[in-house]
Amino acid sequence: MIYRHQLEQLYEAATGRGAADMALFKPSRGNILTPQRRLNIYADGYHERLKAAVAADYPALAAFMGAEAFDALVAAYVEATPSRHWDLNLYPIGLPDLVSPGPAKDLATLEAAIVAVFWAADSAPLTTADLSGIDDEAFAQMGFKLRTASHLLSFEAAPNAYLTAHRAGGPAMMGAGPEHLLIVRHDHEVHRHDLEPLEYDVLTRLSQGQSLTDAIATEAAAERLPHWLGRWLTHGFFNKS
Known about the structure:
Largest sheet: 3 strands, antiparallel
Mean pLDDT: 87
Helix content: 40-55%
Distance between the termini: 48 Å
Number of helices: 10
Strand content: 5-15%
Radius of gyration: 24 Å
Strand order of the largest sheet: 1-2-3
Low-confidence stretches: none
Order of helices and strands: HHHHHHEHEEHHH
């Protein structure tokens, strides 16, 4: 219990949640560093590690905002967001909540979704083979559930085009939208699929539990369905079960 108390005291002090009992710290060799200075090494290192974890997941946002503004955003996020998990994989995904509405928020939301999809639980994809033998009436009443590791997004700006240009190493400019996307992990890679507005609407309806018949609400959507369905199954948009 004494050791546990010591660890709790160190954690509370290093994360800025409380004051440490300096009596718990033994003198350093030669008393070169005071107990408070030694504690500050832990605290500074802890916060710098959190900042590095956040910055690593938003390279395009950093380029778009500029180093000074981005560093200030990351510092504010770390200050406002204690880490509550045993690893840092998902710690950075709340950053868009601190960004004002606009192109920067769209870009932050896109990069956060990529991180979330990368770490989400896996699920087997639905394939054309799984649909063999199903008659037209049963097919029309089927529900199609999006993959566990997927996320539908809609933006007023064009953050995906910006991200693509940034990753290619060329000049990146934030253009006008809208953009509609499905982010999905398939075959162990995260893919970003541009969607037609009508296609986005149908996938949104399916994700809400509507049957295929109910989701295909217009003649235009029905005409596009054969093209969409082939792409959806080829690229693993849906869960097998």
